[in-house]
Amino acid sequence: MLSAQVVIKKYVLYVRLDGELDQYTVEGLRTRIVELMEKYQIKYLVINCEQLRFMDSSGVGFIIGRYNRLKKKAGAVVLCAMNEHINRLVQLSGLHRICVIKKNEEEADKFLGVA
Description:
The chain is of the alpha/beta class. Helices cover 44% and strands 33% of the residues.
């Protein structure tokens, strides 16, 4: 099960994930996030992983897909507040090469200039 709290500040979409991001939950999240990104002309996506307990390759694919969309707008995906499991997956999958990694949302805000 996965829940996602979303907040929009200017051109930044914050997604706070709670639960498991896997093949069973990714499609609902993808649909919701894509709609919000288009409606609000989002340039940056901040994914807060503090409460994310599990992510599989479907979650990695979701992040890559959002990165590809935002790259066309000179935007970025920021991952923050990752636990050890999620951080290891990010490193092994190479997501750390395409995403900005920050310790928490406050650091992400400063990086994006919305603090």
